[in-house]
Amino acid sequence: MKKLGSIACSLFLVALATGCSQKAANSGPTSAAPPASAASGPAKPAVTADDNVWGTYLSDQGKLHGKDIQGHPYIYLIPSGDSPAAIARRTQESQSIVFSIGPIVIPGSLLVLGGPNAQQTNQFTMDLPKTIKAHALKNIVVLIVSDTTQKDAITKAFAPTEATLRFVTM
Protein backbone atom coordinates (compact mmCIF):
# COMPACT_ATOMS: atom_id res chain seq x y z
CA MET A 1 0.00 0.00 0.00
CA LYS A 2 2.90 2.31 0.84
CA LYS A 3 4.41 1.60 -2.58
CA LEU A 4 1.15 2.55 -4.31
CA GLY A 5 1.11 5.89 -2.47
CA SER A 6 4.71 6.58 -3.51
CA ILE A 7 3.91 5.80 -7.14
CA ALA A 8 0.83 8.04 -7.09
CA CYS A 9 2.84 10.88 -5.52
CA SER A 10 5.60 10.47 -8.13
CA LEU A 11 3.09 10.55 -10.97
CA PHE A 12 1.51 13.70 -9.53
CA LEU A 13 4.89 15.44 -9.30
CA VAL A 14 5.77 14.45 -12.89
CA ALA A 15 2.42 15.75 -14.14
CA LEU A 16 2.91 18.97 -12.20
CA ALA A 17 6.42 19.47 -13.58
CA THR A 18 5.22 18.76 -17.12
CA GLY A 19 2.42 21.30 -16.81
CA CYS A 20 4.78 23.97 -15.49
CA SER A 21 7.32 23.42 -18.26
CA GLN A 22 4.59 23.64 -20.92
CA LYS A 23 3.37 26.95 -19.50
CA ALA A 24 6.92 28.33 -19.45
CA ALA A 25 7.48 27.20 -23.04
CA ASN A 26 4.27 28.84 -24.22
CA SER A 27 4.88 32.17 -22.54
CA GLY A 28 7.10 34.29 -24.71
CA PRO A 29 7.86 37.98 -24.63
CA THR A 30 4.81 40.15 -24.34
CA SER A 31 3.99 43.39 -26.01
CA ALA A 32 4.45 46.48 -23.85
CA ALA A 33 1.53 48.23 -25.47
CA PRO A 34 -0.87 46.29 -27.66
CA PRO A 35 -2.57 48.29 -30.39
CA ALA A 36 -5.60 50.19 -29.18
CA SER A 37 -8.36 50.27 -31.72
CA ALA A 38 -12.11 50.35 -31.45
CA ALA A 39 -12.47 48.58 -34.78
CA SER A 40 -11.11 45.32 -33.38
CA GLY A 41 -12.93 45.55 -30.06
CA PRO A 42 -16.42 45.14 -28.70
CA ALA A 43 -19.20 47.43 -29.88
CA LYS A 44 -19.67 50.58 -27.85
CA PRO A 45 -22.95 50.51 -25.90
CA ALA A 46 -25.53 53.25 -26.19
CA VAL A 47 -24.91 56.25 -23.97
CA THR A 48 -28.20 55.45 -22.24
CA ALA A 49 -27.25 51.82 -21.54
CA ASP A 50 -27.23 50.78 -17.88
CA ASP A 51 -24.15 50.25 -15.72
CA ASN A 52 -24.18 46.47 -16.27
CA VAL A 53 -23.89 46.90 -20.03
CA TRP A 54 -21.12 49.47 -19.65
CA GLY A 55 -19.34 47.28 -17.10
CA THR A 56 -19.41 44.36 -19.51
CA TYR A 57 -18.08 46.59 -22.29
CA LEU A 58 -15.19 47.79 -20.12
CA SER A 59 -14.50 44.23 -19.00
CA ASP A 60 -14.34 43.10 -22.63
CA GLN A 61 -11.97 45.98 -23.44
CA GLY A 62 -9.77 44.94 -20.52
CA LYS A 63 -9.68 41.34 -21.74
CA LEU A 64 -8.86 42.45 -25.27
CA HIS A 65 -6.18 45.04 -24.47
CA GLY A 66 -4.80 43.53 -21.27
CA LYS A 67 -3.98 40.02 -22.44
CA ASP A 68 -0.36 40.46 -21.45
CA ILE A 69 -1.24 41.59 -17.91
CA GLN A 70 -0.57 38.91 -15.32
CA GLY A 71 -2.47 40.55 -12.45
CA HIS A 72 -6.11 41.10 -11.72
CA PRO A 73 -8.11 43.72 -13.68
CA TYR A 74 -9.99 46.41 -11.74
CA ILE A 75 -12.79 48.11 -13.65
CA TYR A 76 -14.00 51.59 -12.76
CA LEU A 77 -17.11 52.83 -14.53
CA ILE A 78 -17.06 56.62 -14.57
CA PRO A 79 -20.67 57.81 -14.38
CA SER A 80 -21.86 60.57 -16.65
CA GLY A 81 -24.01 63.53 -15.76
CA ASP A 82 -23.86 66.54 -13.50
CA SER A 83 -26.40 65.41 -10.93
CA PRO A 84 -25.33 65.33 -7.28
CA ALA A 85 -25.51 61.52 -7.40
CA ALA A 86 -23.18 61.31 -10.44
CA ILE A 87 -20.71 63.76 -8.91
CA ALA A 88 -20.75 61.87 -5.61
CA ARG A 89 -20.19 58.57 -7.40
CA ARG A 90 -17.21 59.94 -9.35
CA THR A 91 -15.76 61.14 -6.04
CA GLN A 92 -16.31 57.68 -4.54
CA GLU A 93 -14.68 56.01 -7.55
CA SER A 94 -11.66 58.30 -7.21
CA GLN A 95 -11.34 57.55 -3.49
CA SER A 96 -11.75 53.84 -4.13
CA ILE A 97 -8.87 53.88 -6.60
CA VAL A 98 -6.61 55.91 -4.32
CA PHE A 99 -7.24 53.71 -1.27
CA SER A 100 -6.90 50.48 -3.29
CA ILE A 101 -3.42 51.21 -4.62
CA GLY A 102 -1.00 49.10 -2.63
CA PRO A 103 -3.21 46.79 -0.60
CA ILE A 104 -5.40 45.65 -3.51
CA VAL A 105 -4.12 47.13 -6.78
CA ILE A 106 -0.54 45.94 -6.90
CA PRO A 107 2.16 45.97 -9.58
CA GLY A 108 1.11 43.77 -12.45
CA SER A 109 -2.53 44.81 -12.15
CA LEU A 110 -4.75 46.47 -14.73
CA LEU A 111 -6.98 49.46 -14.02
CA VAL A 112 -9.69 49.98 -16.62
CA LEU A 113 -11.28 53.44 -16.62
CA GLY A 114 -14.17 54.42 -18.87
CA GLY A 115 -17.75 55.51 -19.09
CA PRO A 116 -20.52 56.70 -21.37
CA ASN A 117 -19.35 60.32 -21.51
CA ALA A 118 -15.86 60.60 -23.00
CA GLN A 119 -15.39 64.21 -21.83
CA GLN A 120 -16.22 63.36 -18.22
CA THR A 121 -14.05 60.25 -18.38
CA ASN A 122 -11.16 62.35 -19.69
CA GLN A 123 -11.65 64.95 -16.96
CA PHE A 124 -11.82 62.22 -14.30
CA THR A 125 -8.60 60.64 -15.56
CA MET A 126 -6.83 64.02 -15.64
CA ASP A 127 -7.93 64.80 -12.07
CA LEU A 128 -7.22 61.34 -10.62
CA PRO A 129 -3.39 61.58 -10.55
CA LYS A 130 -3.61 64.71 -8.37
CA THR A 131 -4.74 62.48 -5.50
CA ILE A 132 -2.30 59.62 -6.12
CA LYS A 133 1.17 59.58 -4.59
CA ALA A 134 4.16 59.84 -6.91
CA HIS A 135 5.43 56.45 -8.15
CA ALA A 136 2.34 54.70 -6.71
CA LEU A 137 1.28 53.19 -10.04
CA LYS A 138 4.68 51.94 -11.11
CA ASN A 139 4.27 48.66 -13.02
CA ILE A 140 0.48 49.06 -13.08
CA VAL A 141 -1.25 49.42 -16.44
CA VAL A 142 -4.06 51.95 -16.70
CA LEU A 143 -6.34 51.35 -19.68
CA ILE A 144 -8.37 54.43 -20.52
CA VAL A 145 -11.42 53.71 -22.67
CA SER A 146 -12.54 57.05 -24.05
CA ASP A 147 -11.70 59.29 -26.96
CA THR A 148 -8.12 60.36 -27.47
CA THR A 149 -8.68 64.13 -27.58
CA GLN A 150 -6.99 64.58 -24.20
CA LYS A 151 -4.36 61.86 -24.55
CA ASP A 152 -1.39 64.22 -24.15
CA ALA A 153 -2.88 65.99 -21.11
CA ILE A 154 -3.76 62.67 -19.46
CA THR A 155 -0.29 61.30 -20.15
CA LYS A 156 1.28 64.40 -18.61
CA ALA A 157 -1.03 64.21 -15.57
CA PHE A 158 -0.15 60.55 -14.94
CA ALA A 159 3.62 61.04 -15.40
CA PRO A 160 4.43 61.37 -11.66
CA THR A 161 2.56 58.13 -10.88
CA GLU A 162 4.76 56.13 -13.30
CA ALA A 163 1.71 54.25 -14.59
CA THR A 164 1.86 52.52 -17.95
CA LEU A 165 -0.99 54.09 -19.92
CA ARG A 166 -2.97 52.53 -22.73
CA PHE A 167 -5.70 54.29 -24.63
CA VAL A 168 -8.65 52.70 -26.39
CA THR A 169 -10.94 54.79 -28.54
CA MET A 170 -14.61 54.01 -28.02
Can you walk through the features of this model?
With 170 residues, the chain is of the alpha/beta class. The chain has two domains: 1-30; 32-169, no CATH class. It is built from five helices and four strands. A four-stranded parallel beta sheet has the order 1-2-3-4, with helices on both faces. α4 runs parallel beside α5 (151-158). The longest helix has 25 residues, at 2-26. The chain is globular. The protein starts with a helix and ends with a strand. The relative contact order is 0.14. The model is unreliable at 1-38 (pLDDT under 50).
In short:
Helix content is 44%, strand content 13%.
Number of strands: 4
Q: Return Rg in Å.
A: 20 Å
State the secondary-structure class. Answer: alpha/beta
Q: First CA to last CA: what distance?
A: 63 Å
General shape: globular
What is the domain tally? Answer: 2
Please tally the helical runs, counting DSSP H or I stretches of 4 or more residues.
5
Spell the H/E element sequence: HHEHEHEHE
Strand order of the largest sheet: 1-2-3-4
Question: Kindly state the mean pLDDT as a whole number?
Answer: 81
The low-confidence runs, each spanning 5 or more residues with pLDDT under 50, are 1-38
Helix content: 40-55%
Report the sheet with the most strands, covering strand number, pairing sense and barrel closure. Answer: 4 strands, parallel
> How big a fraction of the residues is strand?
5-15%
